Known about the structure:
The structure is a single chain. This protein has 336 residues and is of the alpha/beta class. The chain folds into two domains: 7-233, Spore Coat Polysaccharide Biosynthesis Protein SpsA, Chain A; 258-335, no CATH class. Helix content is 44%, strand content 17%. The chain is built from 13 helices and ten strands. Strands 1, 2, 3, 4, 5, 6, 7, 8, 9 and 10 form a ten-stranded mixed beta sheet that branches. A hairpin with a 6-residue loop joins strand 6 (132-142) and strand 7. The longest helix has 24 residues, at 259-282. The chain starts with 26 loop residues before the first strand and ends with a helix.
Amino acid sequence: MGLPTSNAWKHSTYETVHNDPQIRREVAIILPCYNVEACLPRALDSVLAQTYTDFHTYAVDDGSLDGTARVLAAYRARCSFVSQPHAGPGAARNRAIQMSDSPFVAFLDADDEWLPEKLQRQIPRLKEDPDLGLVCSLCWLSGSGKQSRSNSGVPGMSASGRLFQNLARDCFVFTPTVVVRRRCLEDVGLFNEALAVSEDFNLWLRIASRWKIAVLPELLAINHRRAGSLSEAIAPEERLRNGVESLKDVESRCQGLSPAERRALHHTLAQRIYFYGSFLLTTGEVDASRRKLRSVLTLRPLHWRALVKLVLTFLPRTVYEFFGGLRTRLVWNADH
Length: 336
């Protein structure tokens, strides 16, 4: 979905619960909401605690069945919001973007929160370099054990520049850390609403294919893992399928990639298809698994794991179930 460049799109015909069309701030904060009554106040409070103050929040209640709308109403002085039938995070973010006309657009999911100096640190970086389309930062991943860490990008990666290759191989951009230039969205388009997950990775890659991006080496946001979140509710097969489709969409839409960038994209696409094909094998969908694994070898002929799995698709199911069980036992023993 592209973002129109004329002013005609600014006041589209949708039913507004609370929205002042005269609001114009330097930064539009985009907040999709779906059954987030319990955690939404934390996200909104972290926005209001920003040391940088020239912003306005645009939220979309994406068909919530709990008290999300009541929470948004309590913050109406600093937050414009609408309600719509459930359509997914990409559609909710796109609608919120279209409610605004700020030159910079920042993203926050209702599960997550910002540290107070986030916008104060990022907006000057965008202003000083007009070729910079996206700025992100480190992000604390809140969980337990191995899940509690901060993302650190790719070792040896430049802090800014044309980073498509790095991003394609390792998604170091976390959504609650992102601020983008509106002209950048007008150039590459909005979120792909057909994707239930990986819609954010898809957009960051499309941006990186045409614009410089920058990573601030400091923690400015917290990503909270929440049981029952929309991303957690996606079935494994749908998650894997969307992961593949998001990269295929990038491949088809980003025609100006260099040979090195296209190789990096194919490397990650092959890996995503391999995981999808392996999953299909475990569920007994042998023909579909075989097709996926063959396509992996088309992209990466030396992918030996895909070759092994492809051989297994021609053997009786009891054989690959035995090897799968053996691998599980070996992993269990290594962890205990």
